Amino acid sequence: MRAWLAALATVALATLAPATPALAGPWRAGADAVVQRALHDPTAYDYVESISVEVGQRLAGSEAAARARDWAVAKLTALGFKNVRVEPFPITAWLRGPEEAEIVSPHPQTLAIIGLGGSVPTPPDGVEGEIALFHTYADLLAAPPGSLTGKIAVVTQPMPRTQDGSGYGALNPNRRQGPSEAAKRGAIAYLTRSLATGVSREPHTGALNYEPGVPRIPAAALSTIDSELIDHLAERGRPIRIRLKLASTTKPATAWTVEGEIPGAVHPDQIVQLGGHLDSWDPGTGSIDDGAGMGIAVAAARLAASQGPPQRTIRVALFGAEEMDYASAPFAAAHKGDAPHMVVIGESDIGADRAWSVALPAGSTNTPEMRDYAAAVAPLGVMVAREPARYSGDDTVGLVRAGVPAFAVRQDASRYFDWHHSSEDTLDKVDPKQLNQAVATWAAFVYIAANSDIDFRALRAAATPQP
């Protein structure tokens, strides 16, 4: 998700065009029927409810991840998918231990923090130091080498609320690269304001990326409220000291991508590939990230086949380790032979709220098939982006780079970052009506892609300027 949202940070709403209704083509009636059925179909919500209640959090490499694997196999089988299988791949599991932080001076106050995924632990007694406060990440980058020696770097930059989630993409370096940038300047630990739009004492986790050759320092996210507390305290002009304790372990482990298919009746070797990721962060139940994404993909696949067996195979993948960036390369390697036969690929990983925009494969917007699709989703309030899809999800990156055309649905992210990666990622955040609107947006596309003979590769080649 992070790469897509980073790209969205540079995309203006002016790149959207209304889905213009046209004379009904050969796919319009079927797409309309799929949309109407999707708006009342219980599959996606039932899926999210089941995994939230029966499995809960699914941190890759944990015991819960193995239960999620077995649950997913049983669920796809029960829903009628064929060729249900498990693809294992090795990972280095990062498992959270006890965590705490407190202001020790000018007076004691407990802080609500959560360790960033992949963070090294502190010594058993923790680390303590005076803080170096930066109101923006750019201010941290401007600090000279050695200026943070012995200090705990703290970045308190707030994340803006946006419909497209571009604020998350823009601030993602605060969490991803911040620990190494602080370490380059001598810091002994790193704290960042949670990448979150809500005001809460629930901190939001997420993965970091240590830079090779740079000391690895412990890193955690502050709740938005405690980040603001530190800002207010700093205004008093007195030095602030913080003590931080993080315990975590790493170990070799196995993760699993679970797949199921609805076989094509005419062209079974041609594959319409979609999915969501099976793993989640550990504070909540992974209901919106990415229980909802999986539910959307599973429901869309079934609805796309509700008019009769599809001509092409519809394959759903429940990717095994997205949050720590492990799943894309193994999935691409496992499906290297399939890649030339993949008609299109998409991943749902932006929560449970309504869709508002879609990005189509390059060169396809004005085809009869996609004009029918645009007309079918226009009543849902969904627009078609002028720019083609170049990305659809972290787990699809490897195959998109290998040449598989991408399809992307943009859902309303206005509420999503209030809860994602936190203990508030729970079932009560899922609105069944909004979820089904997103399902309908996906299902109509999958229906047309799986039942027509549209060739997205040829269309892309025709639309690409020749040197």
Please give the count of helices: 15
Distance between the termini: 32 Å
Largest sheet: 11 strands, mixed
Radius of gyration: 23 Å
Indicate the mean pLDDT: 95
Query: How many individual β-strands?
Result: 15
Helical amount: 25-40%
Level-2 CATH architecture of the largest domain: 3-Layer(aba) Sandwich
What fraction of the residues are assigned to beta strands by DSSP? 15-25%
CATH superfamily of the largest domain: Zn peptidases
Task: Provide a descriptive summary of the structure in words.
With 467 residues, the chain is α/β, with parallel strands linked by helices. The chain has 15 helices and 15 strands. It has helices at residues 2-8, 28-38, 43-54, 63-78, 137-142, 166-176, 178-184, 224-234, 287-304, 328-334, 368-377, 397-401, 416-419, 432-451, 456-463; strands at residues 16-17, 82-105, 109-111, 113-115, 127-134, 152-155, 189-193, 219-222, 241-262, 267-277, 312-319, 342-347, 355-359, 383-385, 408-411. Strands 2, 3, 4, 5, 6, 7, 8, 9, 10, 11 and 12 form an 11-stranded mixed sheet that branches. A 4-stranded mixed sheet has the order 1-14-13-15, with helices on one face. Strand 2 (82-105) and strand 3 form a beta hairpin. The protein starts with a helix and ends with a helix.
